[in-house]
Design goal:
CATH superfamily of the largest domain: Aldehyde Dehydrogenase, Chain A, domain 1
CATH class of the largest domain: Alpha Beta
Largest sheet: 7 strands, mixed
Number of strands: 16
Strand content: 15-25%
Strand order of the largest sheet: 10-11-12-9-8-13-14
Bound molecules: nicotinamide-adenine-dinucleotide
Distance between the termini: 61 Å
Shape: globular
Structural class: alpha/beta
């Protein structure tokens, strides 16, 4: 068992050998076969232990994630990781007993007095591959769904957050055996071997490009997948929106975790006449939120040099192709680069050939595209890959409803950013290139369960009349079924 050292630091964990993963899965499956439908009491006790241990080591998680990022604002880790996890566990504990019940469903007249039932059943072992941007939440929230549904789980966190991965392995090892929950640490070689395992279900959260590779690997074993992917999430600002009221919401949604959020507003669509006022207002708001970006404990660094360079390249490419670039604040550029910090950067005069308008940005750069009418905005969105999230700001309910019916995205928040993601009562997932399947709350329970259809035949059934040899009685039976169906 790996332990925390007396100084509170995590003892170094060796990366998991890719070749060992199959043995761990076998052990988990064998343990599941011995206890394939754990009682609510046993699931609840696991969820409570998970809640307690995440709470107990919150300060260690804050530190580990911050070290992995270069710096991560502590409040962001509390709000976007710990609180989300605790909310999800609380919801699961309150509702899972109801979700576990056998569901009585209607039976068509011609099949009565037989009865239909849906029987939720644990699947077995759930594989979870998680990204670096919210490395605790995106490993643990799928785990909550997996445990609530009565499964065991193996987790592969991102190689970009090695400290968090080691800590997660240590902390989960305190309350779970390897046969219950196993955390695989290591690089892409481990992730590749992990995605090739014959899990009973695989949840992958990450980029669309790696999602494609993972889905192919899972397909070799016909492993069903929930793919939680990324993309360019649009924000449509209607003429009826009050700029002063919406700017803090968009600035906050864009700058949380320095824009390294899958559902961050990627770009804005709005009428040309208001672009200047909006740009100035959001830059001013960013300066109010973060008077200095360098050295400011409230602001998060970009995860790695390669990602920092990618963001600088997006700005340079846009500028070269004629964009106007405005940066919040007056921080020293060298200091910003040293800390891998990027202030809010508003990009206007954009054109479709700019990389910033083609790739998911995943950083605090905000391009703005002129769009005069709602129809123009909807056309722009429809012509592109279906996004993970979509935001609309305005006060015209007819237009709001048109957005909801005529755009397809994983989820939507109206008059705010990202709030739909932390609602436990609605599904969270993408559509098309932004993902498939969903989880959170009951939707996670169903994704990680086999919802088995069961028909209970009655001893009074007339179905026997359909057996050969076919006679006059059979014809009468068929006529009756035609009338009833
Ligand atoms: P990524 O796709 O690079 O990596 C995700 C995970 O895949 C990591 O654990 C990594 O180890 C693993 N991986 C990498 N190469 C692999 C391979 N060849 N085979 C199997 N596994 C492999 O994503 P990232 O950079 O960690 O995260 C950022 C992306 O994730 C963004 O696109 C973002 O939008 C998306 N994201 C989506 C959600 C969501 O809920 N939909 C949430 C957070 C992030």
């Amino acid at each position: 068992m790996v332990r925390l050292n007396p100084d509170g630091k995590v003892a170094k964990i060796k990366s998991t050998k890719p070749g060992d993963l199959g043995e761990i899965l076998k052990a988990q499956k064998a343990a599941f076969d011995q206890d394939s439908n754990p009682s609510w009491g046993s699931r609840k006790s696991k969820l409570l232990k998970l809640s307690a241990v995440i709470k107990e080591y919150e300060a260690n998680f804050i530190q580990a994630i911050s070290e992995d990022f270069g710096h991560r604002a502590a409040v962001e880790t509390v709000v976007a990781e710990s609180l989300v996890i605790q909310g999800s566990i609380k919801h699961a504990i309150k509702h899972t007993p109801k979700w576990m019940r056998v569901r009585k469903v209607p039976t068509a007249l011609q099949f009565k007095p037989g009865k239909n039932r849906i029987v939720p059943q644990p699947l077995g072992v759930i594989g979870i591959i998680s990204p670096w941007n919210y490395p605790l939440q995106l490993a643990v929230v799928p785990l909550i769904g997996a445990i609530g549904a009565g499964n065991r789980a193996m987790i592969k966190p991102s190689e970009y957050t090695p400290k968090l991965s080691e800590l997660l392995k240590t902390v989960l090892g305190k309350v779970f055996t390897d046969e219950e929950v196993f955390v695989a640490t290591g690089g892409v070689d481990v992730a590749q071997a992990f995605s090739a395992l014959p899990f009973d279900h695989l949840v992958f959260t990450g980029s669309t490009s790696v999602g494609r590779i993972v889905a192919k690997a899972a397909a070799d074993n016909l492993v069903p997948c929930t793919l939680e992917l990324g993309g360019k999430s649009p924000t449509i600002i209607d003429d009826s929106a009050d700029i002063d009221a919406i700017v803090p919401k968009i600035a906050n949604g864009k700058l949380l975790n320095a824009g390294q959020t899958c559902v961050a507003p990627d770009y804005v669509l709005m009428p040309e006449s208001r672009i200047n006022a909006f740009s100035e207002a959001i830059l001013k708001k960013a300066e109010e939120f973060y008077p200095k970006v360098a050295g400011n404990d409230d602001y998060t660094s970009i995860i790695a040099d390669s990602h920092y360079t990618r963001l600088q390249d997006l700005i340079e490419d846009a500028e070269k192709k004629g964009a106007t670039v405005r940066v919040a604040g007056d921080d020293d550029k060298q200091q910003l680069a040293k800390e891998r910090r990027v202030p809010l950067t508003v990009v206007t005069d954009t054109t479709p050939d700019m990389r910033i308008m083609q790739e998911e940005i995943f950083g605090p750069l905000l391009p703005i595209v002129p769009s005069e009418t709602l129809d123009d905005s909807l056309k722009y969105v429809q012509e592109r890959e279906r996004p993970l999230a979509l935001y609309w700001f305005g006060n015209d309910n007819k237009k709001r409803d048109k957005v909801l019916t005529q755009s397809i995205s994983g989820g939507v928040s109206i008059n705010d950013v990202a709030w739909h993601v932390i609602q436990e009562d609605i599904p969270f997932g993408g559509v098309g290139p932004s993902g498939m399947g969903a989880y959170h709350g009951e939707h996670g329970f169903e994704s990680f369960s086999h919802m088995k259809g069961v028909f209970l035949q009655s001893k009074f059934s007339q179905g026997g009349a359909l057996h050969p040899p076919y006679t006059e009685k059979t014809s009468k039976m068929i006529n009756l079924m035609r009338k009833l169906s």
